[in-house]
Write a structure and sequence with these properties.
about 140 residues; alpha+beta; 6 helices; globular
């Protein structure tokens, strides 16, 4: 019979995961370590360490779906189809860091990057990384 563990808050859950295996940050670091180093480099021990603030560091969600480009067949003049596709990609990108988002918006989506804003988390008494807002400017044909 499996043990059932009840947790009273995020700290208890985090402590349980750390005591019993890898947590999310460790999994993200491992996935990025494998992505930026090839197998031979890993065997030799001369690895590059992933930087969580770099434009190439990808979250767990980003590692599950590595698409970066918008569908080139869908244009702003297609209305809701375009904005639906853009919303989906923006939702996925919202889990990423500031440098990654800026690179995606400017270099892959070819849009104007307007800014990145952190929101305060009263419970944790710090800015929340995964509740940030990225503002982009979509150029359309209408004035």
């Amino acid at each position: 019979m499996a043990d059932i563990h009840l947790h009273s808050g995020p700290e208890d859950a985090h402590a349980y995961v750390q005591a019993n295996g890898m947590d999310g940050i460790q999994i993200e670091m491992l996935l990025n370590l494998l992505a930026i180093n090839n197998f031979l480099v890993l065997l030799r021990g001369k690895t590059k360490k992933p930087d969580k603030d770099s434009a190439i560091f990808i979250s767990f969600i980003g590692n599950m779906d590595k698409r970066m480009k918008l569908d080139s067949k869908i244009k702003p003049e297609h209305g809701c189809h375009y904005y639906s596709a853009l919303s989906m990609m923006a939702s996925k990108a919202s889990y990423e860091n500031r440098a990654y988002i800026e690179t995606i918006v400017k270099d892959h989506w070819k849009m104007e990057y307007m800014g990145f804003y952190d929101h305060w988390n009263d419970y944790q008494e710090k800015p929340r990384r995964n509740s940030s807002l990225c503002v982009i400017k979509v150029k359309t044909m209408t004035p």
